[in-house]
Amino acid sequence: MKFTPLIQELIDSFKILPGVGPKSAQRMAFQLLEQNQTGAARLAKALQTALSGICKCKICRNFSEQENCPVCSELTRVESGQVCVVATPSDVLAIEETGHYHGRYFVLMGLLSPLDGVGPEELGLDLLAQQLSAGQISELILATPPSIEGDATAYYITDMAKDTTAKVSQLAQGVPMGGDISNIDSRTLGHAFSGRKFIEQS
Amino acid sequence: MKFTPLIQELIDSFKILPGVGPKSAQRMAFQLLEQNQTGAARLAKALQTALSGICKCKICRNFSEQENCPVCSELTRVESGQVCVVATPSDVLAIEETGHYHGRYFVLMGLLSPLDGVGPEELGLDLLAQQLSAGQISELILATPPSIEGDATAYYITDMAKDTTAKVSQLAQGVPMGGDISNIDSRTLGHAFSGRKFIEQS
C-alpha cells in the first residue's frame, strides 16, 4: 500500500525544503491535513503571493515589492556613497541589526562558483560595474563570507573596482565576541594575528 | 529594517510546520525565492489540491480521494472481519509494510485527550460503535501507542465492544528487535516480563 497520489505529491513537495527529509515531510503533510488545514491554506497563499509579488530591486538586487527597495529609496543612504556587497538578503538584515552601517547594499544572491554555473552575470556584477563606472560609489565594503567562494568573489570585485575612484574595504576578520581562543580554528586565529592592532600606551 | 510584508508572511507561514522555528523558516523562504521558485509553485499547488481533493473514508476515516478508501474497497479485507484500530494514517502504512495483517483499519486521527478537547466524537467512535453493533467486526485489534492517552483510548474502546460479538485484542508489548536489554525503559521491560512465553521443550 502507498499513500494516495495527492498525499504522496504533498510529501514530495515538502522534501524540496532545505533540511526536510522523508520522515519530516510526512509529518508535515499529516499534521497540516489532520490538525491545521487553515495553516495549510495560509502557507499555500503566502507562497503564491510571494512568488507573484516579490521581485528584485533594480539598484541593489535585494528582494523587494517595488522596483526600488526601501533601502535604495532612502536619500541619505544613497548620498553616503557607501555600498556594502553581501551574498544574501539575510546578510543585509544581520548588518542592519548591528546599527553600525548607514549606506546602501548590493546583494549578489550567491557567490562565484564556476563549477555550479554561477559566474559574474548570475551575480549581477555587470550592474555593479555600471554603478562603479558612473562614479556613484565612493566606498565598496566587501562583506562576503570568509570561504573559498567568498574570497574568490571578493577578489573578483576588487579587481573590477581597480580603475574606478571607489575605495574598496573588507570586513575585519578575527576572534569573535565570546570566542574561546583555544576553540577557534587556526585560519581565524591566523587572521586575528595578522590583523592585530597596537594599543596606544600613554 | 524588517523583511518586506510578503516575505515576512511567507516566513510566518513556514513556522506553522512542525519542527520549524524562526531560523529554519527564514532559510526555507529565502532558499525557495532565491533558488527554487518552481519548487515553491509546486508546493503551493500540492497544498491546494490536497486540501480540496482529500477527504476522509466514510468507513475507516483514513485519508482518501474517494468516499471509500482503496483498503475498505477490498472485499477480502472487509470479509476477514478484522479491524485494526490505529491513531494516525502513518500507522496504517507502518502496519501494511509488515505484511502480517490483511484486514481493514479504523483510523482515530488522534487519541482521547479530554484536556485538549478530544473526546470520543472527535475520534469518530460513534461510527466504530455502529460498525460493532451491526456485527461487521469479528476481531478488533487495538494498535494504539503505549502511552497514557493510548492506553485510555484502548480501554474506552474495549469497554465499547463489551456487549458485542467482537473479540478484542491488543498488539504484544515487549523488547523490540535489536533492543539492548540494559537500555530498555523499565515499563517496556515490565511488559516483556508479564507477557513472557514458555518455550516448549521436547
Automatic annotation (TrEMBL), chains A, B:
Residues 81-176 form the Toprim domain. The keyword Zinc-finger applies. GO terms for biological process: DNA recombination; DNA repair. The keyword Transport does not apply. GO terms for molecular function: DNA binding; zinc ion binding. A zinc finger (C4-type) spans 57-72. Keywords: DNA damage, DNA recombination, DNA repair, Metal-binding, Zinc, Zinc-finger. Signal peptide: none annotated. Pfam families: RecR_C, RecR_HhH, RecR_ZnF, Toprim_4. May play a role in DNA repair. It seems to be involved in an RecBC-independent recombinational process of DNA repair. It may act with RecF and RecO. Belongs to the RecR family. This is Recombination protein RecR. It comes from Catenovulum maritimum. The lineage of its organism: Bacteria, Pseudomonadati, Pseudomonadota, Gammaproteobacteria, Alteromonadales. The gene is recR.
